[in-house]
Every structure is written in structure tokens, then in C-alpha cells.
Amino acid sequence: MKGHPQFPILVGLRIASVLVLMALLLHPVLKWEKQAQVSLFWNVYLDNSVSMKYHQSISVPSLSNGVEMVEDAIRSKTEHTSFHHFSRSVEDVPNLSVSAEGSATDLGAVMEDILSSQDELAAAIVITDGQLTQGKHPSSIQKSSIPIHIIAVGDSVPLVDVAVKSLDAPTVAIKGEDIKAQVVVQATGLVDKPFNVSLYHNSILLGSKRVRIRGGGAEREVSFQFRPKQIGKQKYEIKVSSASEEINIENNRQLFEINILKDRYPVALVTGSPNYHTALMKKFTKSYPRIRVDHFVQRSDDVFYPSLDQFWKNSYDLIIFENFPANELPTSLQRVMGKKIVNNQASLAWVFGPHINKNSAESLFPFFYVEGVSNQLQESPYSWYFSDEFNAESYLNTETDLQTEFPPLTSPDFYLLPKKSGSEVIAMLDTESAFPLILRTEVNGLRSLVFAAPDMYKLHYSLNETEQRFFLEKFWHGMYNWLLRSGSQNELYFRLNKDSYQQGEEIQIAGTQKGIENKTEARAFISVMKNGIKLNSAELHYNLSRSLWEGNIWASSPGSYSYEIGVEHGNNTSYHRGEFTVNESQIELNRVFVNRDMLKNLAIESGGKYIPWASRADVSDLVMNQSKNVTSKASVKFSQNPWLILMLVFILCIEWSFRRFSGLP
């Protein structure tokens, strides 16, 4: 076999297979270094916020020309450039151009953008005044491994501005109780003088305090305590005296409203003849907050207990007629009753009872702007349902499923029909003509409500053993909210920290709602609309320590906005609605000066150069590397190389072929 002419080839193949097998079994690793030249980019960032065009010594044309000169100098020294604008965020642009319309300055976003691509960069150039109005401070972010050159724009002396930064006051208060309003006043620029902070109510001065603020962004909190004397929505205004050379006096004042409620609502309950409704209506009325009830019961045609003398003498916010009148009222009594309603500006409620008929009811038709149509069918009781137009959940403040079939109710010998366009049908009988069951009306500011079912009490007693046992009481409380304009059960006590903001300013929301025991299980949110289009929404979080929902959003572009705050609890959602305005950004204008120390530190710590705007031509002296040599290490693990296995199989196949065709064993 040794003398066979193919023997040396077979030996060589066997040695090769053994070497490959050893490479697989011994796990040898081959390592070496390689070098390559990598092209590098220069990132250029231009601050495009509002403050850039308000520096006194730099006009907008001058700024635009200077930026164009810097861009030309950079392009002439390197082809590998990437240009960006930044304000709230960083945007890629084909070339630098000054619009200065951004609502904030976020240098932190610039630093993070540089860090994310620093392996591909030779250096970065940032053109800015360095005033941080949003985001992280650059010093809190990881240091860059490449030089950051700063071209600093602006004056060293800040402009002067004094502003009402925030206002904290209740949205609802009780007449005669003390109210506390806390105002935060902020001053920027070189200010060292006292200011008058004044509180007005309908142009009447309620109080004034003199405070000294030293500027430089310093803040002072001023508190006012006052006692409202009128009910309803009352307008108040905070004013701060202006400083000389102040750049913006629009933010020196702040308007706000407080809904002042009565400490007690006098209510008259007039019962024609006691029945199943009487005890219920008295109970529901007394359980409503801050109501004082005078109950008058008719004993005969002309006799009431107590006497009606007290009724005519006292003033009432709400008069409830319950199963009244059993007989037609004299014209003289109708006339006197009408005068009292108008003089008291009283709201009215009418609860039908078993003694109401069409003839007796006609005496009160004019007060409720209704008329009666005789019921010819007499197929009582009827099923009934809430109308689609009536937002029952918001008035009932209940998790009751309003699609549930309630007990059917009886109609008297007539149906009601509204006579005024201001009437709203709340619930209807399930008849062919869908006659109103519950009707409310508002005419010339006077509100009225009719519940036209003599057996309304079924809604209480039939549901008494169910989860809906409080339905009727919650219904009447919801109607009292509307009749008394109190909103004490469903109104949300929310407020924005003010009603006028600057573009880019934080809007703070805080508030609560009564009637929810476990508020942590409720969901609160705010939605912002402009021209009916939803633009933004945010969740509000419940602060256990303050017992308030709190949250924030950011004021966007200038304009008028509406907002809606909702609190969702179970199947019930209540809403608070309001408006606010956003003005052209003054946050940036409050800081129109170059933040020299911060920008110098940023440049020095990164190995870059600090260039004042007056020396912007020095950008041509920067050494702009366009590439760098990169040394990298490479290695090969033979045991993990599939080609070795294939090579071993290939060698063994060749050896087998030689043996077969050469006649060797």
C-alpha cells in the first residue's frame, strides 16, 4: 500500500481530517485587530423658541443673517452635517432658518439627541440663549464624549416682568363663611422694589397687600381672606402693580369665579291632602343639604295648618305643591300666588296626588306653562321611560340602570302638554302619543317641574328591597339641584390654577366631588377642546394626603379653549366644564437673556468652545474633523464555525472516493 501511487494523497487527506477534528475538539480561538476609517458628522442645533427674537440688542433680521453666516461657515468646512431645530423637541431640518415660534426651550432633549448618536459625531454646535423652560437640566444628563461648541445668543441683563403665576381658591363657597385665596406672584429680571397685590370684587377693592420681590425668578405667596355677601357666581380679580420697563403687563392680573351658595334654602311644601306622597316628599326634602322646610297642610277649603300667614310673609326659593289643589283655586288666590312667585323668584315643583283632577289642576296650569288633555283611554297604569334627550345620569348621581323597567305608573284623568319652547320632557308614558310624565320648564329665569303620576310612591316602595331602593330620593335630590341652582350633589369642585396661560405654560388642575365615598376607586380625567374638536386629554390622580384629584397638561398654541373634567364612578359620570385662553408665550419672554454660566460650563466640560454671539465668526476657526480611525478587535472560534464540520465531511468523502476508485482497502 505504501508503494501505491495514491498513498501520499491519502496520508495528506487523513492528516487534514485529524487537524480539522482537533480544531473542533480543542476549541482554539484566533484573534486579530483591524483598522478602518469612519466618516463623522457634525450636528448643528438652533434654538427656535420665542425668546430668541426678543433680545434687545439683536433684531430678527440680524439673528437670521448671523445664523445663515454660521451655517455657510460650517458647510464650507465639512460636507457631513446634520441640522436641527429645537424648542419643545428636536426636529431634523434641511437648513437653519429662524422662525422663533417654539413655546419652550428644552436643552435636555438636545443633550439626549447628541448622546444617542455621539459615536457617529465629530462634534456638535448649539446656537441658543440657554434659558431652560422645560425638560431636564443638562448637568443631570450623562456627559458627552464629544466636544459641544456653544454659540451663545442674547443679552446678559434679563428683561423685567412681574406676573401672577398661580391662584388657589375654592370653586364653591357658602355665603357668610370666610374664603381664603392664595396667590403666587413671580418676578424676573432686575427687580428690587415693593409691589401692590390687590383683590377686587366687581371693581370693588376687598384688600391690598404690599410685598417685595427681588426678581431673578423669585416668588412670593400672598393670602387674602374675605367673606362673600351675595349668592350666585361672583367674579373676582387679582391685580399686581407693574414695574418700569416691564415687557408684559397682561399677566399682572387674573380673573376667577366662585359659586356662592346659600347657607340655607327656605322651601315651602304645600300639601292639599295627606297621602302616600306626603311623608316621602317631606323626607326627601329634609335630607337635601341646607334646606329649611315649612310644611303647610290644607284641612278644608280655606284652612291650612299652620296658617298661610307665614307662607305669604316669608320668602321661599322653592315652593312644592303636593296633591294640591284638590279644588279649583279662586282667581284672586291665583293672582296673589303669581305675585309671590315672581317677587320671591321662586322655583316650583308639582307632585300629583290621588285628589288631583283636570278641573282642580287647571288652577296651576299657568304657573307651569302646561295645558291638559282629557284621558279617554283610561288604560292605567302605563309603562314609562326617560327621554333620550335627558341626561338622567348626571342629574340622578346614581349607578341605577336607567334602561331597567320601573314599576308602571298611573295617569290622572288628563295628560299634560307643554305650552312653552323652554320645556323639556324628562320622562314619557309608553302610550301611542308618548305623553309627558315628568316635565320641567325654565321661562325668564324661573324654573318649574311637574311629576304627573298620582302613584309616584310606587317607585319607592316597590324598589325598597332592591339595589335601586334610593332611586326616587336621588331623583328628587337631582331635581332640587336644578330647581335651586345649587349643584350641591353633582357639581364637581374643580379649578384650573388660573384661566389665562402663556404658550408652553403648565396648566394645573385640582378638585374633588361630593357624594363619592371611596374616591380612589373613581376615575377622573380632563379633555381639552378647541372649536368643538378634542385636542388633548389626561388622567387626574387622587392625592390621598390632600383629598384631591390633581393633574397637569401643557398650554399649546395661542387661542381660546374649552375643557371638560369628568369623574367616573361605577356607571355614573359627572362633568365640570369651563374655558381658558392661551396667549403668545411669555414664559420665554420672562427669561430673555443669555444663561452664560450654564452654557460655558456645558462647553468646557465637553471639551468644546464657548462663542459669544458677537464672536460668531470664530466658528470658522473650529477644527472640524470629518473622519476618524477606528481600531476594532476580531476573533474566530473554530469550534463554532459550521464550515469546519463541512470541511471534515468533505475531506472524508474525498478520502473514501480515492480508496474506492484506487482499489485500496
Overview of this structure, please?
It is a single chain. By secondary structure, this protein is of the alpha/beta class. It has a nine-stranded mixed sheet with strand order 17-16-15-18-19-25-24-23-21, covered by helices on one side. Strands 26-28-31-30-29-32-33-27 form an eight-stranded mixed sheet, with no helix packed on it. A six-stranded mixed sheet has the order 4-3-2-5-6-34. Helix 1 (7-26) runs antiparallel to helix 13 (642-662). It is elongated and about 140 Å long. The termini are close together.
Summarize the structure.
By secondary structure, the protein is an alpha/beta fold.
Secondary structure elements and pairings:
Layout: H1 7-26, E1 29-39, E2 41-47, H2 60-77, E3 81-86, E4 90-93, H3 107-116, E5 121-128, E6 148-152, E7 161-168, E8 172-174, E9 179-188, E10 190-201, E11 204-215, E12 218-226, E13 232-240, E14 253-261, E15 265-271, H4 276-286, E16 291-298, E17 304-305, H5 309-313, E18 318-322, H6 331-344, E19 347-351, H7 358-361, H8 365-368, E20 370-374, E21 384-386, H9 392-396, E22 414-418, E23 423-429, E24 436-443, E25 446-451, H10 458-461, H11 471-484, E26 492-496, E27 500-502, E28 506-513, E29 523-530, E30 533-543, E31 548-554, E32 559-569, E33 572-583, H12 596-606, E34 610-612, E35 627-637, H13 642-662
Parallel strand pairs: 2-3, 2-5, 5-6, 6-34, 8-14, 15-16, 15-18, 18-19, 19-25, 27-33
Antiparallel strand pairs: 1-35, 3-4, 7-9, 9-12, 10-11, 10-13, 13-14, 16-17, 20-22, 21-23, 23-24, 24-25, 26-28, 28-31, 29-30, 29-32, 30-31, 32-33
